[in-house]
Design a protein that fits this description.
The chain has 328 residues and is of the alpha/beta class. It has a domain of 103 residues. Helices cover 42% and strands 17% of the residues. The strands form two sheets. It has an eight-stranded parallel barrel, surrounded by ten helices. Strands 5-6 form a two-stranded antiparallel sheet. Helix 3 packs across helix 5 and helix 6 packs parallel to helix 7. The chain is globular and about 60 Å long.
Length: 328
C-alpha cells in the first residue's frame, strides 16, 4: 500500500505550528511525514526556518508517524555530525526515519563561507559523504581525508537497523548517479512523462527494486482563485527553471528573480485546484509510476483546512487506487 505523507515546510511555518500540524495530519489519516531542512526560507514572504533536526525529535515523540528528511553534507553540515543525529533518532524511534542526501543549494549552504562548487563537484562531495555516513552507520571507526576530512570518528549509540539512506535527484543524470549507491530515490513531482524518465534512469543506474519517494507540490483552496493566489504568494520561487535554483544566495535574490512570474505561471510547477477529485486524479497517476510514498506539500497557508479536506475526500480514494494499481 502506498503511503501518503504530510510535508512539514520549515520555510513557511514556525516549528511549534508545524508540530501541531503533523499531529492533525496523523489524526486525519496521513500515514507518514517529511521535513524540509533549510537555514533560510526561499523568499521573504515565507518568513521561517526552524532547525529540522531538533524539530524531528519532538515530532517523532509527538506522533507515531515515520518521517523523512533531506539534507546536504559537506558545507553547512559535517557528515559525521548528522550521521550521529540520524542514528540517535533511529535508536530512540526504530525504523521511523529515512534520510535523503542531496547536492544542496547555495541559499542554505553558503553560510559557512566555503566555496560553492559546480554541480559535478557537488555530486562528488555528496558521494564521498554518503560513503562516510554508511561506514559510520556500520560501526566503523572512520578516518578520511579527501573533499571532506574525518578523523577517528565512530558512532557509539547506534540503532539495530540504520536509517534508509536515499539519494535526492531532479534530473535523469542525477537519478542514474544515485541509483548506484542509495537505498532509494527521493524526487519531486513533474509531468508524468518526465517522471518516467527519472524513474527509468534511477533503475538503470542500479536502483531497480529500491523504494522511491515523491514530494508533490500542490495547492488546494475552496475556490480556484484562492488556490492560484496562495500558490503564487508562497511558492512562485518554484517557477524558476534550470540551475539558478541552486546558485542564489538569499531570499531577496529569489524575490528579485521571480518579479516577472505571473500567477498563471504557477500551473507549470504546482498542482493547483479547488477540486479534491482533481487532486486525487493527479496523485493516482504518480502511484501508477511505482512510488511507495507520496509526500504532499500543501503550498498555501490554509494547512488545517487542507489536512481536514484531504483526510476526508482524497486519502480514502488514494488508498483504493493504491490497492488496485497495476504498479511496475
Amino acid at each position: 500500500m502506498v503511503q501518503i505523507g504530510y510535508h512539514a515546510s520549515h520555510e513557511q511555518f514556525a516549528p511549534s505550528e508545524l508540530l501541531r500540524l503533523v499531529r492533525e495530519a496523523e489524526a486525519a489519516g496521513f500515514g507518514c511525514a517529511m521535513s524540509s531542512d533549510h537555514f533560510k526560507p526561499w523568499g521573504p514572504d515565507q518568513g521561517h526556518s526552524g532547525f529540522a533536526w531538533a524539530w524531528l525529535g519532538s515530532a517523532l515523540q509527538a506522533t507515531s508517524l515515520p518521517f523523512g528528511v533531506i539534507s546536504a553534507l559537506g558545507y553547512r553540515y559535517h557528515p559525521a555530525v548528522l550521521a550521529q543525529a540520524a542514528t540517535t533518532l533511529a535508536e530512540m524511534y526504530p525504523q521511523r526515519l529515512w534520510w535523503a542526501l542531496g547536492s544542496g543549494q547555495r541559499l542554505n549552504e553558503d553560510i559557512t563561507g566555503l566555496p560553492w562548487p559546480e554541480k559535478a563537484e557537488r555530486n562528488a562531495v555528496l558521494r564521498e559523504c554518503a560513503d562516510i555516513v554508511r561506514a559510520l552507520f556500520a560501526g566503523e571507526t572512520v578516518t578520511h581525508r579527501g573533499r571532506v576530512t574525518v578523523v577517528d570518528a565512530r558512532l557509539y549509540s547506534r540503532p539495530e537497523r540504520a536509517p534508509r539512506l536515499l539519494g535526492a535527484a531532479v534530473t535523469e543524470a542525477t537519478a542514474r548517479f544515485v541509483g548506484g549507491w542509495a537505498d532509494g530515490l527521493l524526487t519531486v513531482a513533474a509531468k508524468p512523462e518526465q517522471l518516467r524518465k527519472v524513474v527509468a534512469a534511477f533503475r538503470s543506474g542500479g536502483g531497480e527494486g529500491k523504494p522511491m519517494v515523491l514530494q508533490v507540490a500542490l495547492n488546494w483552496a475552496p475556490s480556484e482563485a484562492e488556490a492560484l493566489q496562495g500558490a503564487f504568494q508562497q511558492w512562485r520561487y518554484n517557477a524558476l527553471a534550470g540551475d539558478v535554483n541552486w546558485e542564489m544566495r538569499s531570499p531577496e535574490d529569489y524575490d528579485t528573480a521571480t518579479r516577472f512570474v505571473r500567477p498563471e505561471d504557477m500551473h507549470e510547477s504546482v498542482l493547483i485546484s479547488s477540486d479534491p477529485g482533481r487532486h486525487t486524479a493527479w496523485l493516482t497517476e504518480f502511484i501508477e509510476l511505482g512510488f511507495e510514498e507520496l509526500q504532499l506539500h500543501q503550498i498555501g497557508r490554509n494547512q488545517s483546512a487542507f489536512v481536514e479536506t484531504f483526510g476526508a475526500k482524497v486519502l480514502p480514494d488514494l488508498r483504493t487506487a493504491s490497492a488496485g494499481a497495476d504498479r511496475p
